[in-house]
Amino acid sequence: MTTPPAVRVRGLTKTYGTVRAVQGIDLDVEQGETLALLGPNGAGKSTTVEILEGYRDRTAGDVSVLGVDPGRGGVAWKARLGIVLQTSSETPAVTVREQVAHFAALYPRPRDVDEVVQAVGLTAQAGMLVRNLSGGQRRRVDVALGIVGNPELVFLDEPTTGFDPEARRSFWDLVRGLKDDGTTIVLTTHYLDEAAQLGDRAAVIAQGRLLEVDRVDRIGGPDARTPIVRWTHDGRPRSERTREPGLLVARLVAETGREPDDLEIVRPSLEDVYLDMVATATAAAADDAAVADDHQPARTETAA
Ligand SMILES: Nc1ncnc2c1ncn2[C@@H]1O[C@H](COP(=O)(O)OP(=O)(O)OP(=O)(O)O)[C@@H](O)[C@H]1O
């Protein structure tokens, strides 16, 4: 018997007045997987995630999260979710430990408070007032509050914004730990390196449509990761995509009898592939809009 997905979305649509924010998305998130949700500003990511979290109504489509329609999810269902929102939580006059303990008490099966404080790297600050923490430290408190309920499914919305590089690395370890415990994770991020590090699969959304969902190392199709050899010849930059970069370099050396100038071999990163996909989708949408404009009936000017 196959396990049902943690999240199942079919034909999801959301309109705000005339804005078509989400235009028919189909997506599954398997149990225990980490799905990175990527897309430019205004793509429809937050709208989609908020519908999954039960915070926003949908216009059309079928959605099931942990087997429940989020539009009808009760308290017991919500307790199975962990949510780390984009905006930082309030900063009351309580210590880090007190705030995490306060949230833990709201859940039926919470994690150990000190373990959670340690997991987000705040043991040294456990006795400090939350309001006296730095921005990045407060963000870690947000993450602690999102996971202290021992959720089956965690939504992380831009979780490392404002983190220093070291904090970012330790946060990645924390997410890997959650994953090792079997937690399903939906991670929305603009940091493509973060998506590549943590995501099993990535879903790319643009203009409310799902462009592609695939393993992070496969997204963009088989040719997207073909290496690029760059060098300079007679002062002019040259580049060539090839699956055999070593052979190309050997040929260049044989032809000129010397090391090619400014030689580099790069394999396109998830970020390069993503930027290409979004640029193509944006250009296609602009073309569609231009065609639609051409088909508008000509406006007749009325004489004043
Ligand atoms: N409450 C709202 N009322 C009207 N329009 C909205 C509302 N919320 C979002 N939108 C519009 O819906 C579209 C999708 O927005 P959404 O916030 O889902 O995008 P996003 O991918 O999360 O963007 P970002 O990366 O900037 O957070 C945008 O055009 C946005 O302006």
Q: How many strands in all?
A: 12
What sort of overall outline do the alpha carbons produce when their principal axes are compared?
A: globular
Q: Could you tell me the strand content as a percent range?
A: 25-35%
Instruction: Report the sheet with the most strands, covering strand number, pairing sense and barrel closure.
Output: 6 strands, mixed
How far apart are the first and last residues' alpha carbons, in Å?
Answer: 73 Å
Q: Residue ranges: pLDDT <50 for 5 or more in a row?
A: 299-304
Search tags:
304 residues; alpha/beta; 6-stranded mixed β-sheet; binds adenosine-5'-triphosphate; antibiotic resistance
Task: Summarize the SSE layout with pairings.
Elements lengths: L6 E10 L2 E11 L4 E5 L6 H8 L7 E6 L9 H4 L2 E4 L11 H9 L8 H7 L15 H13 L5 E5 L7 H16 L3 E5 L3 H7 L2 E6 L2 E7 L12 E6 L2 E6 L3 H12 L4 E6 L3 H25 L10
Parallel strand pairs: 3-7, 3-8, 5-6, 6-7
Antiparallel strand pairs: 1-2, 1-4, 8-9, 10-11, 10-12
Bound molecules: adenosine-5'-triphosphate.
In brief, what are we looking at here?
The chain has a domain of 57 residues.
Describe the structure.
The protein is of the alpha/beta class and 304 residues long. The protein has a domain at 228-284. The chain has helices at residues 45-52, 75-78, 96-104, 113-119, 135-147, 165-180, 192-198, 245-256, 270-294; strands at 7-16, 19-29, 34-38, 60-65, 81-84, 153-157, 184-188, 201-206, 209-215, 228-233, 236-241, 261-266. It has a 6-stranded mixed β-sheet with strand order 5-6-7-3-8-9, with helices on both faces. The radius of gyration is 24 Å and the shape is globular. The termini are far apart. Mean pLDDT is 90; it is low at 299-304. Bound molecules: adenosine-5'-triphosphate (ATP). Keywords: Antibiotic resistance, ATP-binding, Nucleotide-binding, Transport. It holds the Pfam family ABC_tran. Belongs to the ABC transporter superfamily. InterPro entries: AAA+_ATPase, ABC_transporter-like_ATP-bd, ABC_transporter-like_CS, ABC_transporter_ATP-binding, P-loop_NTPase. One of its GO terms (molecular function) is ATP hydrolysis activity.
